[in-house]
Amino acid sequence: MKKADIGMIGLAVMGENLVMNMESKGLRLAVYNKETERVTEFVGGRGAGKNIVGTYSLEELVNALEKPRIVMMMIRAGKPVDEVIEQLIPLLEPGDIIIDGGNSNFMDTARRCEYVESKGLLYIGTGVSGGEEGALKGPSIMPGGSPEAWPRVKPILQAIAAKVEDGTPCCQWVGKGGAGHFVKMVHNGIEYGDMQLISEAYHLMRDYLELTADEMAGIFSEWNKTELDSYLIGITADILAYRDDDGAPLVDRILDAAGQKGTGKWTAGAALDEGIPLTLITEAVFARCLSSLKDERVYASKILPKGVKKFEGDRKTFIEKIRQALYASKIISYAQGFSLMRAAAKTYGWDLGYSDIALMWRGGCIIRSAFLGQISKAFQEDPDLCNLILAPYFRDALSESLESWREVCSSAILSGIPVPAMTSALSYFDGYRCADLPANLLQAQRDYFGAHTYERVDRPRGEFYHTNWTGRGGKTASTTYNV
């Protein structure tokens, strides 16, 4: 019997659909699942009559593969990945490749890559974005790990990836170690930001403008024909138009408590480690945390009533201002995300192609949008661009939206509607372009109570000074350091 081109471990939603995707591209698959009855169900059902062979142990899976072997895992991140790697290593031979396509932490991937390579094998940690439909029809794929593995897996991963208009696959090599999973983590953080911004626009229209679900569905549908053209805007229109069995808008009956799997939290943590002000995405994570306190919020609403001030004016005009505020905030979210990738690339020695990353996100993934083409173009024109908002296209877009952005944020604050992502984005924009922030006072405070020293505007950078502010502290200063 002909051996399989690739093996898949894990037949949950993503694994199963990736198998179907690969098989449709002419590949022969061997599949395995820890709960082996799932293998029987799959090969006898959806996989029946396909070039898919079921296996019932890891040893059987490995033996079913063409050498050098490629084994892909689509399993829960964390300890299960380490356990499967340990089980696979004795079964594989030098040059064989292990791929982790789950949402693993990039530091775990870097550690695993080094460990697997020490055993004579190759390792890839790849982000896969697009959900169930993307996995089946073409996801965005962000591979990193052992560079020697890329030529082997490139034809497979690029064949199953989404394609942009000119046929370019949304899959390119990202970098060594944990680079692929880091880029996927940032993608997911930006996804958090996009979803929160859209929810804030919805909140304003629902509670401030008092629009119906049908009216909002139409608005989001129209917005999807503008610069906001994206997967998330499109599905928001669909969601708002969807009806429950009795004809009422289903969205109104969904509990306002959001879940999260942790990648947004990882992104915020990485930003703190790198010293990058990832304010919007971090606020989006905290907004989900706040939403989960449903019982506390209901209780607080009774003893701390706020009363939303209703809108007075032309709704159509204000709806356009919300659109502009949403777009401006979205630019900030992506600018912060790319700044984080830039900082991490320096820390970990990655050579990230930011234009390619933007193109990888153009199709298949959850944050896919026409807007990403402008990001790719900005980095093509200036590969050393330190911040996306300095590129001419985005600089002009922010300038044109600024008045509306301020009005929407101030109206939300005055009416008591929380818009943490929009307002944090505006504060970042104002702070980033402020030549003189009040951190001089902050640094003086640090020197006053902790002798942490300071630099002077009338002296060269890199020279540090300490003042005996009280006359009791002496001349001894703390060691200068920054985190």
Please, could you describe this protein's structure?
The structure is a single chain. This protein is of the alpha/beta class and 483 residues long. It contains 19 helices and eight strands. Strands 3-2-1-4-5-6-7-8 form an eight-stranded mixed beta sheet, with helices on both faces. Helix 1 (13-24) links the parallel strand 1 and strand 2 (29-32). The radius of gyration is 25 Å and the shape is globular. 45% of the residues are buried. The mean pLDDT is 95.
Give a brief description:
The chain has 19 helices and 8 strands.
Task: List strands and helices in order, with pairings.
Elements lengths: L5 E4 L3 H12 L4 E4 L4 H8 L7 E3 L3 H6 L6 E4 L5 H10 L8 E4 L5 H13 L3 E8 L1 H7 L2 E6 L4 H11 L14 E2 L2 H30 L4 H11 L7 H11 L21 H12 L4 H13 L2 H10 L11 H34 L5 H7 L10 H11 L10 H24 L4 H13 L6 H12 L33
Parallel strand pairs: 1-2, 1-4, 2-3, 4-5, 5-6, 7-8
Antiparallel strand pairs: 6-7
Defining key terms:
alpha/beta, 483 residues, eight-stranded mixed β-sheet, globular, 53% helix
How would you sum up the major sheet? 8 strands, mixed
What percent of residues adopt helix (DSSP H or I)? Answer: 40-55%
The total beta strand count reads: 8
Widest beta sheet: strand line-up: 3-2-1-4-5-6-7-8
Oligomer: single chain
Distance between the termini: 59 Å
- Based on helices, strands and strand pairing, what is the structural class? alpha/beta
Number of helices: 19
Q: Indicate the overall shape.
A: globular
Query: Over the alpha carbons, how many angstroms does the gyration radius reach?
Result: 25 Å
Strand residue percentage:
5-15%
Overall average pLDDT: 95
Topology pattern, helix = H, strand = E = EHEHEHEHEHEHEHEHHHHHHHHHHHH
Low-pLDDT regions: none
